[in-house]
Amino acid sequence: MCHDSADGLDEGFRRLLASGQSLASVLLDYEICVHCQHVYKMRTTRPYSCPACNAEIHMGRGYTPLVVCSLIDLMQDQYRMELSRTNVTGGKIIEQRKPHHYVAIILLSCTLVECWMDHFLWSLMVSRDLPKLEIDRLLSDNWRLADRKGRLFTTLTNEPFGNALRHLTEKNKEAGGDLNYERVWAFVQDANKSRNDILHKGAIHRFPEDLIEKCIKNIHGVNQLFISLHNRYIAKR
Ligand SMILES: [Zn+2]
Questions:
Q1: I need a labelling partner for 58 at 20 to 30 A (CA). Which of 116, 133, 154, 155 fits?
Q2: For residue 90, what is the DSSP state?
Q3: Is residue 209 within 8 Å of residue 98, measured between CB atoms?
């Protein structure tokens, strides 16, 4: 397993990965504007203007759900874990790393997407003033990720999820980024298939060799996708 093949990552994320700092800490820089609900990367000097509505920001509000940060921390802990045990004389034995040692990263990666989707849909329905009982019912009736990004997303936004992915990819490109959200979602589907094979068939030796690396590399794309979905469908500007 190669631990420094970080191609395709943005520079800040790549530096963090190499330095061993918390990948989740990148997300702590995101705030939500209390006036228009736009999510943006905070600046160090205050006050400043919201990039969407120009309101003066003195004190921003943190945006990222804590569970998202915890899941990313757990993925990173698993990724850099040392495989060692103590023998009978107290000596340390370092075990050779094998792909299946990292199987938890696949499960955590899928959970990360599920948590983001749950947070996004819940926030979207709150912003549309749906009663809490109705929100709970819709989330419970559509508990599978496929239904949430399928019929529930389309019902709430009048747009297929695939269109949203294409639109957000274009927007990212216009802003000078190189994130392809259709590719990010293709990874999500691959990871989900392997997750299901692991959970239901015990297939811990049969996932694609590069899947663990992809789980780590796609953390950034997944985070940015859900921030972009928020800004397109929930922010008021
Ligand atoms: Zn604003």
A1: 116
A2: S
A3: no
**Distance from residue 57's CA to the centre of ligand 1 (Å):** 8
Phi, psi for residue 20 in degrees, rounded to 5: 85, 5
3-state secondary structure 134-188: HHHHHHHHCCCHHHHHHHHHHHHHCCCHHHHHHHHHHHHHHCCCCCCHHHHHHHH
Instruction: Report how many domains make up the chain.
Output: 1
Q: Which of 237, 230, 235, 224 is nearest to 27 (CA)?
A: 224
Distance 49 CA to ligand 1 centre (A): 8
| Residue 80 is assigned to a structural domain of this protein | yes
**Average pLDDT, whole number, for the chain?**
89
- Asked if residue 56 has pLDDT above 70, the reply is yes
State residue 16's pLDDT score.
67
Global pTM value: 0.89
Q: State in Å: Cα 37 to ligand 1 middle.
A: 6
- Digit-coded pLDDT (tens) for 188-231: 999 999 999 999 999 998 888 889 889 998 999 999 999 999 99
CA–centroid distance, 226 to ligand 1, in Å, is 18
CA 136 to ligand 1 center in whole angstroms:
28
Is residue 2, in this structure, part of any structural domain at all?
no
| C-alpha 117 – ligand 1 centre gap (Å) | 23
